[in-house]
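Hello everyone,

My group is preparing for a crystallization screen and wants a predicted model to guide construct design. The compound we'll soak is calcium ion. Before spending weeks at the bench, it would help to have a computed complex in hand. I've included the protein sequence and the ligand's SMILES below. Output in C-alpha cell form would be ideal because that's what our pipeline reads.
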Amino acid sequence: MSCGQGSQGSGDPISPIQLRHAGTSFYPTLRENPATIGTLKRSVPPINYRLSILFLAALIFLPVVSALPNSAEAACTNTERFSTWLKRFKQHARNQGVSNRTIRAALGGMTLSKKVLSRDRRQGFFAQTFASFSRKLATEHRRKAGIRKIKKLRSYFERARKKYGVPPEVITGFWALESDFGVGMGKFPVMKALATLAYDCRRKELFEGELLAALKIIDRGDLRVSDMIGSWAGELGQTQFLPTHYLNHAVDFDGDGHANLFKSEADIIGTTAAFIQHLGWRRGEPWLQEVRVPAKLPWQEADLSIQHPRSKWTAWGVRNADGSALKRDSMPASLLLPMGRKGPAFLAYNNFKVYVEWNNSLTYATTAAYLATRIAGAPTMRGRNRDIPGLSASGVRELQRILSRRGFDVGKADGIIGAKTRKAVRTMQLKYGLPADSYPTAALLRKLR
Ligand SMILES: [Ca+2]
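Reply:
Good plan to model first. Here are the C-alpha cells for the complex, ready for your pipeline.
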C-alpha cells in the first residue's frame, strides 16, 4: 500500500491498490458502469477488453475525480451474519478440496474487519491530473532503484527475458510502483481482508474466489498463514497479485519447490514476467513512447481504440519527443493524450494493452509504462510540470447533463469522464470546429451553454 506518493484530500496516500479499485480505460467496447469496480489485474484473456469504464478516466482527463464505490454498491446490504456465512464458506472450501488443516489455520476464529469495510466503501475524493499523478508515482527515486535492481539481479532478469520475452524495465516498473521492491507491501492480515470482502455484498463473488485461491496457495505450501500480511484489498507479495493470479501464474524461478512472491526475488521476477506474457506481451516490441505533436492534427484520431502505422503519424507531423523523426514503418500505434492536445503526448503500442490489463486505471497504466521507459533510459517527460486546466467535477456534471439533453448517451451525470462522455465531447468539438481531442474544457462548456 505505501507507495511513497503524496497525500490526497482524504488524508491517505493513493496507492496503486486504491487506483485499481477505481480503474478505467477508454478501449472501445467498454461499459460506463462502475458496478465492476475492483476487478483488476484481470484473469480474462488479454484479447478481451471489456474493461469497465470507471473513475480513472476522470483522473486522467480531468483534475477532479471521486475515488471508490458508487452509491448503489455502497448501499448494498448484508443480510447474513458473518459467522453463518463463514461456516458455509468453510464447507464450500472443503468441497473444493482445501484441507481441514488449512481451513482451521487460516479461518479459525476469523472475524469481520470493520476497517476493511469502511476502507472499501469510503467515498474518497481527490484531485489529480495525469501530470501531477505521474510526478508523484514515477519518481526519480524509483527510476534509480529500478536500475540498481536490474544490475543486481541481472541473471534472473535475463532468464525471464529469454523465457517470457519481457524486458527487465517493464518488470521493474511494476515492482517499483506496487511495493517499492517489497518495502511497502502493507501490514494488514490478508486472510481477514479477504474474508471480509468475500462476506460483504459489494463484490462477494469476486472475493469468495480470491479467498478460496488464498487457501489453496497455503494448502500447496507456497505460503504459510503467518506470511499472509499485505494490503487491506487482499493482494499478495511484492508485485501485489490477487490470490487467483498468484495461484494460477506464480512461477518457482529459484527452484526451491515453491513460489514465494513475498521473499524470493527470483520468483517475483519470473512470476511477474510470466504474468505479463500471459496478458499478451509481444516480445521485442515497444510499449510506450513519448512524442511531440504538431499544432494541427486530426485530433479525433487520438484514441486508444484507433491505431495507425507509425508512418502515418509521421506524415501527420508527430515526432520523437526530442524533435527528431519517428521511424517511418508499419508498427501500429495509438496516440495517447492523457490531458488533451496541450498535455503530454505518447504513442501507445500493442504492448501498452498489457498495462491496461494489469490495472484498468489509465492513469496508473500510463504512469507504469512511462516509468518503465524512464528506467530503460528515456528522458523526462516534456511538459511534466505543466498543468493543463480541465473542468471541475461539477463542471463535468453540468457538461454531462447538457450532453444528455442533446441526446448523447453519457451514462449518469456523475462528473466522471468515461468513454461515452469522451466520445460525446469529441463529437461536439468537431461540430464547433474546436480541436477534437476529447478533453473537455471550459471553452467547450461555455459553447454548450
Ligand atoms: Ca521458489
